[in-house]
Design brief:
By secondary structure, the protein is α/β, with parallel strands linked by helices. The chain is built from 6 helices and 11 strands. It has a single domain, classed as Rossmann fold, CATH 3.40.50.150. It has a 7-stranded mixed sheet, with helices on both faces. A two-stranded antiparallel ribbon has the order 1-2. It starts with 16 loop residues before the first strand and ends with a strand.
């Protein structure tokens, strides 16, 4: 997998399932995911969002390689939840600096990963925040990170990008770093546009990923985000916050 792909969407739908490891079926459940997150992360502060603490990989390259070489071999998704990606940091910063965007509102965070953006929304005064991701490791990470920050989030593991899926019943939709893959970006933007057309405010954070849509977006803010060269192509990513129109 190439560097700089911030979310794994590899068909995970159920946090209680079974993995085939070398021909042997191994049970997988939420406690397994929670244990893996705890064993491979430390509580750290994202550089552009010092108000928030997250369980992140302090040895980014080592954990990424471990996943690529071992976990992917047995069918587990890469640990996108273990890093504070530039798009998420920029969007979280924008929400914290402009709490009126979410204060008193119901918020849905698409492809939440670590839960950074969802936590920022709750910290900024959202009444209800749904953190959505299809990766069950994200459920464990979000649960742990919400505890660290003393906020209450609701995790939803449903695939809202699937054909025929209902829209979330919220006021605001947030999406950090989702335009990294051609197919996923197309599905994500179609969903976000449906939300905007239904009257929801939709904000995206993006550091210039390859498949950022060319139309239908208006720029709301810009940030320079420090990142790790282990996963990105530079030490600083110029990140914009866009509103879907």
């Amino acid at each position: 997998m190439d560097r700089g792909l911030p979310h794994g969407r590899a068909g995970w739908q159920d946090a209680e399932t079974a993995l085939n490891v070398g021909g042997i079926t191994v049970a997988f459940d939420s406690e397994t995911a929670k244990r893996f997150v705890l064993e491979n992360t430390s509580v750290l502060t994202p550089p552009h969002v010092p108000e928030i603490r997250l369980r992140l990989a302090d040895e980014a390259h080592a954990l990424w390689l471990k996943t690529e070489e071992e976990l992917e071999r047995i069918g587990l998704p890469p640990p996108f939840w273990a890093f504070a990606w530039a798009g998420g940091q920029g969007l979280a910063r924008h929400v914290l600096d402009h709490p009126e965007l979410v204060r008193g509102k119901r918020v849905f965070d698409l492809a939440t990963g670590s839960g950074l953006v969802a936590i920022a929304a709750k910290t900024a005064g959202a009444t209800q925040v749904v953190a959505n991701d299809v990766d069950p490791f994200c459920e464990a990470a979000v649960g742990l990170n919400s505890q660290v920050n003393a906020v209450s989030l609701r995790f939803d593991g449903n695939d809202f990008l699937a054909s025929g899926s209902d829209l979330p019943q919220v006021d605001c939709v947030l999406a950090g770093d989702v335009f990294y893959d051609r197919m996923f970006s197309a599905s994500a933007f179609a969903f976000l546009k449906r939300c905007a057309d239904a009257g929801m405010r939709v904000l995206c954070g993006d550091p210039g990923r390859a498949y950022l849509p060319k139309d239908g977006l208006e720029k709301r803010a810009e940030y320079n985000i420090a990142v790790t060269r282990a996963l990105e192509d530079s030490e600083v990513k110029h990140t914009c916050v866009w509103e879907v129109m």
